[in-house]
């Protein structure tokens, strides 16, 4: 029987992928006490980067927002692996967003809302979180966006 959060994902049409393996010398997540810290996730779909390039150039701001949303879905896949059951998630504590963009781009916050919005769609009030969003010159695998997260477990 699916839990409350699994049911919510189904209602939203979200299917969690197999969690991506790290591409360098790090682990995908660390559980310490009641916190789960998840390494940055890029917008992978079926093992390939779905949104590549700089937001504001090759990638539109709307596509960047979709990339951030996909990054959060990939965070959820890691979170499920860490927690075993997404119903164990008490709160989304913090998200960090990295947006590959040219220096003139200023819509970082709107792009990162793609991840923040789905956090609230999935977890309701427990999905409201602290957040940092920064622009960077490039990201691994030429990803347009990367999102990291911290979650509290029950």
Automatic annotation (TrEMBL):
Taxonomic superkingdom: Bacteria
A Pfam match: YjgF_endoribonc
InterPro entries in the cross-refs: Endoribo_LPSP/chorism_mut-like (IPR013813), RutC-like_sf (IPR035959)
Location of the Endoribonuclease L-PSP/chorismate mutase-like domain: 6-145
PANTHER family in UniProt: ENDORIBONUCLEASE L-PSP_CHORISMATE MUTASE-LIKE DOMAIN-CONTAINING PROTEIN, ENDORIBONUCLEASE-RELATED
Protein name: Enamine deaminase RidA (YjgF/YER057c/UK114 family)
Originating organism: Neoroseomonas alkaliterrae
Organism lineage: Bacteria, Pseudomonadati, Pseudomonadota, Alphaproteobacteria, Acetobacterales
């Amino acid at each position: 029987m699916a839990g409350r959060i699994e049911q919510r994902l189904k209602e939203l049409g979200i299917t969690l992928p197999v969690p991506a393996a790290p591409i360098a010398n790090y682990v995908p997540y660390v559980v310490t006490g009641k916190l789960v810290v998840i390494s940055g996730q890029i917008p992978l779909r079926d093992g390939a980067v779905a949104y590549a390039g700089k937001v504001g150039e090759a990638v539109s701001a709307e596509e960047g927002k979709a990339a951030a949303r996909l990054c959060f879905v990939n965070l959820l896949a890691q979170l499920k692996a860490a927690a075993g059951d997404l119903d164990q998630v008490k709160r989304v504590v913090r998200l960090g967003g990295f947006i590959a963009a040219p220096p003139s781009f200023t819509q970082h916050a709107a792009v990162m809302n793609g991840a923040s919005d789905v956090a609230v769609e999935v977890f309701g009030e427990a999905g409201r979180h602290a957040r940092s969003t920064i622009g960077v010159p490039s990201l691994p695998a030429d990803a347009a966006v990367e999102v990291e997260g911290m979650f509290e477990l029950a």
